[in-house]
Amino acid sequence: MKLRTYVFGVLGGGALATSAATVSSPDGRLVLTTSLSPEGSPLYSVNYDGKAILLDSPLGFISNVGDFSKDLTLLKEKTGTVEKSYTQTKIKKSHIDWTANTLTEEYNAGNGLKMSIEWQVGNNDLAFRYIIPVENKTRSMIIEKEVSGFRFPDFTTTFLTPQSDAMIGWKRTKPSYEEFYKADAPLSEASQYGHGFTFPALFHIGENEWALLTETGVDGYFCGSRLSDNNNGVFQIEYPMPEENNGNGSASPAISLPGKTPWRTITIGSTLKPIVETTIPWNLVEPLYEADYEVNPGRGTWSWIIWQDNSMNYDDQIKYIDFAADMGYEHVLVDAWWDKNIGKEGLEKLAEYASSKGVNLLLWYSSSGWWNDIEQSPTNIMSRPIPRKAEMKWLESIGVKGIKVDFFGGDKQETMRLYEDILSDANDHGISVIFHGCTMPRGWERMYPNYVGSEAVLASENLVFGQDFCDMEDFNATLHPFIRNAAGVMEYGGTVLNKRLNRGNDGGTTRRTTDAFQLATSILFQNPVQNFALAPNNLTDAPADAIDFMKNVPTTWDDTVFIEGYPGKYIVLARKATNGKWYIAGVSADKNPLKLTLDLPMLAKGQEVKLYAEDGKTPLAAKTLKIKDPGKVQLTLTKRDGFVIVAE
Ligand code: CA
After folding, report:
1. Quick one: CATH architecture of 298-553?
2. Pairing mode of beta strands 254-256, 140-146
3. What is the pLDDT of residue 178?
4. Minimal CA–CA distance to 199: which of 213, 178, 216, 179?
5. Which 3 state secondary structure label does DSSP give 445?
6. Class of the CATH domain delimited by 2-283
7. What's the gap in Å between 435 CA and the centre of ligand 1?
8. What is the pLDDT of residue 18?
9. What distance in angstroms lies between residue 459's CA and the mean position of ligand 1's atoms?
C-alpha cells in the first residue's frame, strides 16, 4: 500500500526553504522532499531509509523566453499514482511492473510565465522532468542552461567516465562514450578533460547506499545531456559542447510548446541490487511506433573483430557465414569496406548464400557526414534522407535484416534527430539498427521497436588495438553490469576464444582472461543482438565445451537477478533466459582469490546443474554439479577467471 505524507509549511531543521512537499515511494523507504529557497529557486532532497542520498539540490532552467530557476512562486501541487505493466524482449527482464507515487508542482515565474516539475517516486527509482506550457504567445523555446543538479554528501565516492573533448581521437570521431571509468574516486575529483562526465553515473554514499544517475525519453527533439564536474558540491546537468558535430548545429535544445524535457532518473538502493536490476529507463517511456514485423534478436559473429579490414572480401565473408551456420547463429555482421571490396552485386550474392544457410546479414555503415574524417565506407548514405531511403529499400530487397551505423557526431539535438531518422526509415523496411561510435541509449529499447543496441563503451575492439586494454579487461568487465549496462543495452561484441587477437591466433595482443571468463561475459553483458568475437579456428582450437556453450547461449531474458559483487572487483548475476533456463555468471578482477558462498534461490536441493569453469591446470570443461544445500553454491573465483552455471 501507498505511504504518502504531504506537508506544506516551513521545513524543519533550520533549512532555508520556505515550503516543502514530501512524497514517499510505495514502500515508504525512498522519500523525496521539494522546496523553494528564499530566492524562489526550486530545490529537492532525497532520503533512503532515513539516510541522506541527495542534499538540497537545484532545479530549474534558463531559457530564451525567461528564467525558470529563481523568483518562482508555487501555484499548485498535485499528487497521484502511476501503475503500469509492460513487456519487453530486448532488456534484462521481459515483464515489468512499475508503481510510483507522483508529484507535480506548478510554478509562476512572473510576467505570465509558468513551468511545472513532474516527479515519479518508485521503490528504488525516482525521476523528474520539466513541463512547459505555451508561454504567453510563445510556442517555441530554446533552453540555454539547465540548473538541475545532484548534491551528494561529501563522503560519497564516484564511479564515473569523463566526457572527452570534441573532434579528437581517431579520425576526429570523439566524443563517443569510449573513455575509461575510475572506481571509488573522491567526490571532488575533476574530470579528465574538464567537460564533466557522461551518463550513466554511479555514486557510493557511505557504507551501503548507492545511486545511479541517467536520463531517458530523449528522442530526436532534445539533446543528450551529461553531468558537469563537481561544482561547489553539485553535479549539474550540462548540454552538449558547441564543438561537437564539427561545431555544426546548436548545443542548446529547442522545443515546441507545450513541451517537456527528458526524464532525469535516480536509482537508489541500500545494496547494489536495485542498481543492477533497475528498469527505470524503460518504465517512463512508450513505443514511438509499431514494428509490424518480427525484430530479430539473436547471436552473430563478425570477421572484422579478429581478422580486421583485410577480411572484407567475398571469400572471407563466406567463411564467416559458414562459421555462423556451424554455430547455429542467426547473424553475420559484414563490417566496413564491403561496398568497395565486395560491391553491391557481390553483396547480393552473399546475402543469397547466407539465406541458403539460414543466416541473416547485418551491414555496416558510417553515419558520416561532416562530423569526422572517416573514410571507412560506405559513407554519406545514412546522413542524408534521399540516399538513405533508397539504401533501405535495396537492403530490404536483398533480405538484409539489420544494419550497424558507426561514428556519430555527439549529443546535440541535431544528432539525436539523425539517430531517430535512421531508426524510423529502417523500420519502414523491416530493418533493425545497432549504433556504434555513438551516444548511450536513453529508453530507446522501448521507444524504437527496431533498435537493437549501442556500443557507447570501450568495447571488444580495444582488445585488438592494445595490450593495455587486455591487461585491464577484467577490471572493465566488473564495472559494466553496475553502470553502463544497467542503464541500457550494450553491444560490446565480445567473448573471445582466441588466445592471441590476430587471424592466425599466433600474434597481436594477448588475452589475459580465461576461457571461462569469456563465457561469463556472454551472460554478464546484455544486448538483444550479440555479435561474438569468435573466429572459425575456435571450432577446433577452443575447448569443445566452450564452443558447445556458445552454440546454445541465449540473448533474450525473462529476468535478471543481482547475486553479489562490487564494481571494479567482481560481479555475479543470474539471468533467466526466455527458454526457461537460468544462467548464473561471474567474473573477478580482485587480486585476492574470492571464496564465495553464492546465494542462488533459483537452485533447488538435489538439482543437477552444469558448471563451466577452469581449475587453472586443464582446459575449460563442463561438469555436473549437484546442489546439496538448497540455494547455495560454493566456489573460488580468482582474478581474470570466471564461471557460468546453467540450470534447466
Ligand atoms: Ca567503437
Report:
1. Alpha-Beta Barrel (3.20)
2. antiparallel
3. 98
4. 213
5. helix
6. mainly beta
7. 9
8. 57
9. 6
C-alpha grid cell for residue 202?
554511479
Strand 360-366 vs strand 402-406: parallel, antiparallel, or unpaired?
Answer: parallel
CA–CA distance, 510 with 474 (Å, rounded to integer)? 14
Tell me how far the alpha carbon of residue 177 lies from the centroid of ligand 1, in angstroms.
Answer: 9
> 456 CA to middle of ligand 1, Å?
7
Which 8-state DSSP code applies to residue 138? B
Map residue 401 onto helix, strand or coil.
coil
At 19 the pLDDT is 66
Amino acid (1-letter code) at residue 23: V
The answer to whether residues 203 and 46 touch, using CB atoms and an 8 Å cutoff, is no
Q: What is the CA(484)–ligand 1 centre distance, in A?
A: 15
Domain boundaries for CATH 3.20.20.70 within the chain:
298-553
Cα dihedral 413→414→418→423 (10° resolution)? 30
Phi/psi of residue 77, nearest 5 degrees: -130, 140
Strands 529-532 and 608-613: unpaired
Helices 314-327, 544-552: axis angle to 10 degrees equals 90
Residues of the chain with CATH 2.70.98.10: 2-283
Look up cell 560491391; give the residue.
343
Residues in the chain predicted with pLDDT less than 50, given as ranges, are 1-17
pTM above 0.85, yes or no: yes
CA of 149 to the centre of ligand 1 (A): 30
* 355-376 burial: b if 16+ Cβ within 10 Å, else e: eeeebbbbbbbbbbbebbebeb
User: What 3-state DSSP class applies to 523?
Assistant: helix
pLDDT score recorded for residue 461: 97
